[in-house]
Sequence to fold (302 residues):
Amino acid sequence: MRSLQFDWPESPIQRITSPSINKQKLTVCVKRDDLLHPNISGNKWRKLKYNLKDMHDNNKNAFITFSGAFSNHLYASSMASKLYDIEGHVILRGPHIDEQNPTIKMARACYMNLHVVNRITYRKRNNTDYQDEIREQFPNSHLIPEGGSNQSALQGVRELARSLPESDYILCPTGSGGTLAGLIDGSAETSHIMGVAVLKNAEYLNQDILGLSAKAATQKNWQLLCQYHGGGYGKFSPELWLFCQNMHRAYNLPLEPIYSGKAFYALWQLIEQGYFPAYSKIIFVHTGGLQGLDGLRYRKLI
Fold:
């Protein structure tokens, strides 16, 4: 295993203005974590960083994780495996693999070991008995949950929180809850933390966040917005995709409509509705995941 470079320069912050933002006297900035790491973007590097460090410190020679076939987590894990010369294994939701899928092709190019299971088996990924079976099958491997969200991941997201300027509101897309939990843990209580759920019926994530973050149970400065899912995970409207394209043209801000675009569109709607008090300082965390655009193009969804 190659020496792990854990520390990279902090990602930049981009100011966004518009007539509505200016009229309401708001300050809106984007934390460009899509530019954080040269190969593993956004919250995926934040989450993997301390998982890889734990694996290294505990003398494990491999890791194993869980993923869908187009997942940013699969992409990031595969890239980490290749860059740092780590043996990587992924329990992949099947039952079949499309070898032409660009994310799968990239994982193959990184020599990631893909173990395809049917959907019934994959649903057991968070079951402790099933995870124990996986650990027996791969005895010297560090187990990373789907999406990378665990206590090790929170260490990386706390670093993100501490890197942010003083803000009244911090917003981020929310899939598995780890980024939101880490922001709650690492941010000042004077900041209001808002997660935009990208999945339908995502209210259950509130309990997952409480399980990850001790501070979430005692603080009232956070919320999960569940009405901006756009129809469910992986679904989006033509209006949302047009919004993403317009943001790229107007601000040179690349977005994809599954995570970052969906959450930034929610922020834009809240601004248009006059949700935020005048003079509010708002920061949006761009969690990366732009590789997902290749999968959407492959499936002719954009």
